[in-house]
Structure to design on (97 residues):
């Protein structure tokens, strides 16, 4: 699945479940909540013994982040695939120090 397909699938699911009724601000806050859950799982890697279980949970939280990014882009009519191409070009000529 490519980015455009994922973004379309998120949009369809969102409409089916009524999530598309949330405001842009609410969706951005949901995204921040999910980023916090990713951070929590990353932290738990340092103390939980079963790293594979943590990685599985982390993968699910990363999915939630990507899902919310796609939904936010949908709400703002942003083509993420186009944005990825544009930003990749910018980063190719950029230097980091």
């Amino acid at each position: 699945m490519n980015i455009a397909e994922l973004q379309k699938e998120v949009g369809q699911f969102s409409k089916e479940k009524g999530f598309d009724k949330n405001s842009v601000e609410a969706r951005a806050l949901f995204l921040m909540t999910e980023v916090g859950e990713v951070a929590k799982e990353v932290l738990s890697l340092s103390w939980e013994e079963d790293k594979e279980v943590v990685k599985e949970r982390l993968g699910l939280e990363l999915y939630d982040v990507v899902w919310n990014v796609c939904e936010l882009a949908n709400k703002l009519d942003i083509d993420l695939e186009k944005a990825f191409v544009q930003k990749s070009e910018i980063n190719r000529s950029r230097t980091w120090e």
Notes: The chain has one domain: 3-92. Residues 3-92 form a domain with the Helix Hairpins fold (CATH 1.10.287.1080). Residues 51-75 form the longest helix (25 residues). The chain has a mean pLDDT of 96.
